[in-house]
Structures are given as structure tokens and as C-alpha cells.
From TrEMBL:
This is T-cell immunomodulatory protein. InterPro entries: Tip (IPR024881). GO terms for cellular component: plasma membrane. Residues 1-22 form the signal peptide. Keywords: Signal.
Amino acid sequence: MAAARRLLGSWVLLAPLLGGLALLGVGPVPARALHNVTAELFGAEAWGTLAAFGDLNSDKQTDLFVLRERNDLIVFLADQSAPYFKPKVKVSLK
């Protein structure tokens, strides 16, 4: 019984302290919502099925291989400016 009173007494002391820290913004940072970066990466070319990725032109940046309409393979080469992946090579598989 005495232990329960001590535990309750410690919570009475800690509650205002924790509340004050919460008001100051001290403690874990709340999770931020994710946002869609597809338009920034691909621009208007953001459609198709990603088939593979790798470094096609040896520039040490990841390039993407995208299948479209079952017959076209589009190679998106990485770039330093937006949109960061631009379609550069189109191979028709007809």
C-alpha cells in the first residue's frame, strides 16, 4: 500500500514536468507525412512499369528501364536538374 502511494506521488510530480516539456517541443519529433515526389523526378513522363535499373552510361547515377504499352522500352537517364529522370532512349519491341 505504501509503495502504491509513493508511485502515485511520483506521477503527481512528473506529470507537470512532462507536460511542460511537451509544450516546449522537447522530446521525440513527431512523424512528418510523406509526400509524393513522382512529378519532381519524372515530370509528365511518369507512367509505365519499372523493368530494371542500373548505370547504363557509366556516369555513376542510377538509370531506369521502363516498359510501356507492352512493346516499348524507355531508358530514363539520370540528370542533375528537374525532372531528374529524362527519357533518352526508346526501343520498340515490335
